Amino acid sequence: MDLYKINGKLLGKEGRKMNLKDIRQVIKLLDENPGLVEIEVNTGFGQRIRVSRSDRELPVSQKPQPLASTEVAPKVAEVTWEKALKEIKSPMVGTFYRAPGPGQKPFVEENSRVKPGDPVCIIEAMKLLNEIPSEFSGRIARILVESKSPVQYGQVLMLVEPD
Fold first, then answer.
1. N or C: at which end does the chain have fewer Cβ atoms within 10 angstroms?
2. pLDDT tens, the chain, 163 aa long
3. Residue 114 has what DSSP assignment?
4. Whole-angstrom Cα distance, residue 63 to residue 40?
C-alpha cells in the first residue's frame, strides 16, 4: 500500500518525509473525529508526529503531572480583529522566526505586499524549519509575534489586509 490510511483518510505516501500538508491532514483528522484523543504517525525516516487533543478532560490517572519548574506558559489571548483583516495562524507548536537565518533580512515587514504562497516566516518544530506561506494576497497590516518567541497551534502570527 502506498498511503497511510486511518478511518479512510489518506495521510501521506509511505517512504517519504512528512511535509506541512501531511501534518495539517493529521490535525484535521483529529478535529473531525471527536472520539480520538491522540494520533501518532511515524514515517520511518526518523520523523514522528504526535497530535493530541488538549481541550478534553482526562481521567485523573491519565492527567499529566505539573512540571517542577516555576515557569508558566503564556496564555494565548482571544482577540477580535476587524472583519477586513485576514489572520495568518500558526499551523503547529514551535518557535517563530521572521527571517530565514540569523542576521538576514526578515521575510516580510509591516506594510509588505504578499501573495498566496509567499513565505512569511519560519516555525521551528522538533529541529525542523518549516516555512509558513501566506494564504492571502494583500498587505501585512500587523506582525503580532516577536522573532524567537514560542507559538502555539492556531495562534495568530500576522494580520493581512486583503487586496
1. N
2. 334 545 445 455 545 566 777 778 878 877 787 777 777 776 655 567 777 776 545 455 444 555 554 444 444 444 444 457 899 999 999 999 999 998 999 999 999 999 999 999 999 998 899 999 999 899 999 999 999 999 999 999 999 998 8
3. E
4. 19
Q: How far apart are CA 96 and CA 10, in angstroms?
A: 29
Q: Are 44 and 15 in contact (CB under 8 A)?
A: yes
Residue type, 59: P
Three-state SS annotation for 6-41 = ECCEEEEECCCCCCHHHHHHHHHHHHHCCCCCEEEE
CA distance 91 to 106: 19
Contacts of 136 (CB under 8 A, 6+ apart): 86, 88, 114, 116, 160, 162
* Domain residue ranges of the chain, discontinuous segments joined by +: 3-54, 86-162
| CA–CA separation, 117 and 163 (whole Å) | 15
Q: What CATH class does 86-162 carry? A: mainly beta
Distance CA 81, CA 141 (A): 11
